[in-house]
Amino acid sequence: MTFILLSFILTLMGKLWSGRFKEETEKTVEDFTESVSFDARLWKHDIQGSIAHVKMLARRKIISKKDADLIIKGLNGIAARIESGKFRFRKDLEDVHMNIEHALIKKVGPAGGKIHTGRSRNDQVALDIRLYLRDGTREIIKLIKAFQRAIVSAAEKNIDIVMPGYTHLQRAQPVLLSHHLLAYYEMLERDRGRFEDCLKRVNVLPLGSAALAGTTFPIDRKYVAGLLKFPAISENSIDAVSDRDFVIEFISASALLMTHLSRLSEEFILWNSEEFGFIELPDAFTTGSSIMPQKKNPDVLELTRGKTGRVVGDLVSVLTVMKGLPLAYNRDMQEDKEPLFDTMDTVMACLLILTKMMPRIRFRPGNMERAAAAGFSTATDIAEYLVKKGMPFREAHHTTGKIVQYCIEKNRTLMELDLETMKRFSKLISEDIFRCMSVDMSIEGKQSVGGTSGKMVRARIRKIRNKR
After folding, report:
1. What superfamily does domain 375-467 belong to in CATH?
2. Is the full-model pTM beyond 0.85?
């Protein structure tokens, strides 16, 4: 009893791993190696995993039920203190795991020291990150779905507005605004699928791998997996503690999602400019200038575009950390958390604010339609008209190019040409060509699956609505 009491006192006085060391840790080393300043956010998942682990230890009679009940009660008490803001995380205790375990031992006595039986911080932190990522990924999937709904609603509300479609940022062919908006729905649908697929590899229980070789205690990993709702258990203890593929995969999916949000932001920034004049952003989601009173700046969109660089940087950071590590766990892997947390926070914030902004954007159909009608946006329709009359496509393309060149030289639009002039370029041309040259007919003619016609856009929206 005296020995147990002495060990308990020494544990409270020093670090939980300090038995092998003669010297105290240098203060600068403590500051350099600590992670609790950022991994404290894992506390819920750490306690959740510890409770499941303790229940298993008691079930397998590795520790007594009395000790297990005492530990679980102590952990719940610590959770309540953290939730209320009364718990003080200490840097000298390195990380969230040691802070909670130290507090537990202090609270319940020597029984608290049994919590770490049959596990290591290596599999403990792997578990905490997976639990955290599982919750966060599910939340991001919900946010993606909410943003998709906002996009579909905007498309439905503005279903018949015509705008110029672009390639190379040059006016190309007329399209429906609704069709253009739904392109972002499709991007987000792929993003959602990637996060859902990523969850399969996040949802694997690493606990029970211990430091790297497993444990001699008769643990029941399947029971723990059931308590924590993990459908799969890691099959190799070395891989389980050294694997951060799931972190990289999550940040990779996030980087691609942010790339899509950045592209949308860039377009809205352009469309909001005086040069385009396609949309007006709501006052509540813009800011003013400190010197120019007339300015209304698209800061939310610009910051989304800028924050994309952060997430791409987070991906490069974790890939660089992991690329040269030998098996199994190395302390370098502590550097995965800040990029992961930054990515999670950034993605959630961007999705949330864009979803709120989307319904309040005012589209300007007049400006869009005038831009769609200008230039030679229906030139491809003329080429296709000639092909339908029997002309090979390459010849039709060349002939249409000559017509466009003539218009440029004469400073005229396609619709300003008369039939006699048109016939100079091909004897296949007749009165019916003017139908295919109109913007409305150009759009309604695109009835191939995935095309921009109103019929196809409405069909896609119905399919989306029915799926949800």
Report:
1. Fumarase/aspartase (C-terminal domain) (1.10.40.30)
2. yes
